[in-house]
Amino acid sequence: MRTFFKVVIWFMAAIAGLFVWNVTPDFRPIIGWVLAAAFICYVLATIVEATIKRLIADELLELLRQSNATANRIDLLDRKVSAILRDALEQRRVR
C-alpha cells in the first residue's frame, strides 16, 4: 500500500511539474536548478543511509560476537560452579 501511495504522489508531482514547466517558461531555469539540487540531495541522502546501515550492521555483528564470547564464559563458569557444588554436596554426604 505504501508503494502505491509513493507511485501516486510521484505521478501527481510529475503532472504538476509539467503544468508549471509549460505555464511559466520564465521560471524554467529556477525549476531546473531546484530539480538538480533535489536530485543531488536525494543521492547524498541515499549514500548516507547506506553508510549508516553498514556501520550499524558492523556494530551489531561485533556486539553479537561479544555476547557469544560472554555466553561461552558464562557456560564455563556455570560448569565450574556446578562441579564445585557437586563436590561440596558429596563431601557433606560423606560426613
Summarize the helices and strands and which ones pair or pack.
Blueprint: H1 2-23, H2 28-94
Structure description:
This protein is mainly alpha-helical and 95 residues long. It has two helices and no strands. The termini are far apart.
Provide a short characterization of the protein structure.
This protein has 2 helices and no strands.
Mean pLDDT over the residues: 89
Radius of gyration: 32 Å
Tell me how many strands there are. Answer: 0
For the biggest sheet, the summary is: none
- With helices defined by DSSP (H or I, 4 residues minimum), what is the helix count? 2
Approximate shape:
rod-shaped
Overall SS class? mainly alpha
Helix percent reads over 70%
The residue ranges in which pLDDT falls below 50 over 5 or more consecutive positions are: none
N to C succession of SSEs: HH
Straight-line N-to-C gap: 74 Å
Strand percent estimate: under 5%
Features:
rod-shaped
